[in-house]
Amino acid sequence: MEGEPYGIEKEHAHKRAIELVPEEFFWDCVDELAPFGSDEGDMALSEFRRWRSSNPNTSLLECLQWTIESVGEIRFEEYDNRILDKELIETQINDFNFNDQQYIFTLDISVIATGFGQLVDEGRIEENCKPLIQLALERQNNWTEMKREWEYKEEYLHKLEVLQRVLSEA
């Protein structure tokens, strides 16, 4: 990918993405609460671009499947509405043997950044992929709601709302 932009750069983004997402946080490469500002989101964007360069005519769904199975270490079929169960999420957060940072946050951010990476680079998000990205956004919302003492909770929830809006319009 020599010569191609690295990371999230608004000046290299598709015109439609810029129109759909005027919020500056989205384009911030160091905002940990933005889709591409965390190490996880930045890596997911980079991996999407690497995958796309090798698979120019393949559905994003294949990339999302690979992401879910590799990052989440689960079968693709397991990433469904069951992951939104608030009791399950709370149990996972409180389980010392479950790494919710990896298997909730990192996995969901990877799905979100992959999907929104397609918007940034191609000006669209494939319709068949939107339900998976919606799941990731909803689980992030539920997970964040349970982080009672987190000082960035309200800011992150607001950013998730913006992403929900953009997903519905993309």
Overall geometric form: globular
Helix content percent band: 55-70%
Record field, number of beta strands: 0
Query: Which ranges are low-confidence, i.e. pLDDT below 50, for 5 or more consecutive residues?
Result: none
For the record, the count of structural domains works out to: 1
Mean pLDDT: 95
Q: Which radius of gyration do the C-alpha atoms yield?
A: 15 Å
β-sheet strand percentage = under 5%
* Helix/strand order, N-terminal first: HHHHHHH
How many strands, what sense, and barrel or not for the largest sheet? none
Structural class: mainly alpha
- N- and C-termini, Cα separation: 26 Å
Characterise the protein shown here:
With 170 residues, the protein is mostly helical. The protein is built from seven helices and no strands. The protein has helices spanning 15-20, 39-54, 60-71, 86-94, 100-122, 130-145, 153-169. It is globular, with a radius of gyration of 15 Å.
Provide the descriptors you would attach to this structure in a database record.
single chain; 7 helices; 170 residues; 0% strand; mainly alpha
